[in-house]
Design a protein that fits this description.
This protein is of the alpha/beta class. It is about 50% helix and about 15% strand. It has a 7-stranded parallel β-sheet, sandwiched between helices. Strand 1, helix 2 (about 35-50) and strand 2 form a beta-alpha-beta unit. The termini are far apart. It holds the Pfam family adh_short_C2. Belongs to the short-chain dehydrogenases/reductases (SDR) family. Keywords: Oxidoreductase.
Length: about 270
């Protein structure tokens, strides 16, 4: 008798949990710069929630195809699409191909980035700032413009930018990157107010230092110095970022817009 009651309670619990898991079935997501690192984790999290995921890449075709093969072998739905997301014509062509394969795009995650050099004020040039603005302001704008008409027509859309904690921290020798990330956050807030009446939410996920391929050159001492400042006393993972993006794309976040969600163990509190 006790066993039967326990089994029944477990069944009810599992059923409620399953129902509460955000589902993105019948939604299509486009994630840029998704062949590796945070982008791959984001694409994976969205696919695991049932979305059809367009994995954008520029140079890493092999890694993008491998990611899609791995996810598709699990019964998920993904496909790789090449485009330089700083180029308007390439974006337009990619969006057409995504829509041909998966239908309209419901979820947009501008994640692609480029080289991020540390430069003193004396070393910085206007071009060094423009290089960052191309990825964090120009590219998201062009991508949003390419899918916005459909989102407005359907009165549904999720735009999730990938920012950074550096806007709050103000890292030295990094003003070119920090300024572009600050502009990205400002655009997110403006877009959120403009698009809210159309049922389109716009938010930004701001990771802390998440170990990826980009940080392979960091020393153990540098990583420990960062960890010592983090209240949770450890670094995050790409999966932490992916799960946050998947939540913001879900129905559970339909009343959240214009927000910056820090994924950094409490390293910033703004």
């Amino acid at each position: 008798m006790v066993r039967k009651v326990a089994e029944r309670l477990l069944s009810v619990y599992v059923g409620k949990y399953t129902q509460s898991v955000p589902s993105l079935k019948d939604k299509t997501a486009l994630v840029t710069g998704a062949s590796r690192g945070l982008g791959a984790a984001i694409a994976t999290a969205l696919a695991e929630q049932g979305a059809r995921v367009a994995v954008n890449y520029f140079a890493s075709e092999g890694r993008a195809e491998q990611l899609c093969w791995d996810l598709n072998s699990r019964g998920l739905t993904t496909k790789a699409f090449k485009a330089d997301v700083r180029d308007e014509s390439q974006i337009a062509a990619m969006v057409r191909e995504v829509e041909k394969s998966f239908g309209h795009i419901d979820i947009l995650v501008p994640n692609a980035t480029g080289h991020q050099p540390f430069l003193s004020i004396e070393e910085q040039t206007w071009q060094s700032h423009l290089d960052q603005l191309e990825f964090f302001v120009k590219s998201p704008l062009l991508l949003l413009q390419s899918v916005l008409a459909g989102m407005k027509e359907r009165c549904f859309g999720r735009v999730i930018q990938i920012g950074s904690e550096v806007v709050e921290l103000g890292n030295p020798r990094f003003a070119n990157y920090v300024a572009a990330k600050g502009a990205q956050l400002a655009a997110t807030r403006s877009w959120a107010r403009e698009l809210a009446p159309f049922g389109i939410t716009v938010n930004l996920v701001a990771p802390g230092w998440i170990p990826t391929d980009r940080s392979v050159g960091a020393t153990a001492e540098e990583k420990q110095a960062y960890i010592d400042r983090v209240p949770m006393q450890h670094m995050g993972t790409p999966e932490d970022v992916g799960r946050t993006v998947a939540f913001l794309a879900s129905a559970g976040a339909e009343f959240i817009t214009g927000q910056k969600i820090a994924v950094n163990g409490g390293n910033t509190l703004e």
